[in-house]
Amino acid sequence: MNQHQPTTPAATSGSPEFDERLSVPWWWYPPVIGVGVLLGAEVHMGYPGLRSWIGYAIAIPVLVAAFVWLGRTRVRAAGGELQVGSARVPLRFVGRAEVVPKKDKQIALGPELDPSAYLMHRAWVGPVVRVELLDPDDPTPYWIFSTRDPEGLLAALRR
Q1: Claim: this prediction has a pTM higher than 0.85
Q2: Is the dihedral of CA 149, 151, 157, 159 positive or negative?
Q3: Which has more pLDDT, 47 or 112?
Q4: How far is 146 from 21, CA to CA, in rounded Å?
Q5: Residue 14 has pLDDT above 90, yes or no
Q6: Which residues partner with 81 through β-bridges?
Q7: Distances from the Cα of 147 to the Cαs of 19, 51, 116, in angstroms?
């Protein structure tokens, strides 16, 4: 399934667009359902009769819903702004943007991470991008976030 759907620029704005949903891979759901079954079995062993199924009825849907919710995160560059999750910044305040190489990812997310930076990391998405912010009124020096198509995002930000 293609997670990155390039779209054409809006006729009135003339700005490039990038839109990506960081959904959880489908192969993560079977283990999550398995964990839900194990949690349900714990409840099942403690209660006889009809109550024994309450653990399954609650644990499995809650865990699946949590993964669906985690996979709703979007990375979007459109309409003159960069949106990562619920955070937004006008593109005029976006400075230098770079792909963090895989070998440097652990360092960028660990010892080098500025505590005031905006971080949106998804473990199931490999590449990470760091975008410098130029807004003097914003205390956030940069954003660092996951994206499956870092080159596509950087191309959209450069235009």
Answers
A1: no
A2: negative
A3: 112
A4: 11
A5: no
A6: 78, 90
A7: 10, 43, 21
Among 87, 90, 151, 75, residue whose Cα is nearest residue 117? 87
Amino acid letter, 136: P
- Contact between 73 and 122 under an 8 Å Cβ cutoff? The reply is yes
157: nearest Cα among 90, 97, 85, 84:
97
Say whether 80 sits in a helix, a strand or coil. Answer: coil
Between the CA of residue 51 and those of 36, 47, 59, what are the distances in Å?
A: 16, 6, 14
Residue 16: its pLDDT value, please? 53
Cβ pair 51, 41 in contact under 8 A: no
pLDDT tens digits for range 34-86: 999 999 999 888 888 888 899 999 999 999 999 999 999 999 999 899 999 99
> Which amino acid belongs to residue 123?
A
How many Å apart are CA 148 and CA 73, to the nearest integer? 12
Check if the beta carbon of residue 9 is closer than 8 Å to that of residue 61: no
**Which 3 state secondary structure label does DSSP give 145?**
strand
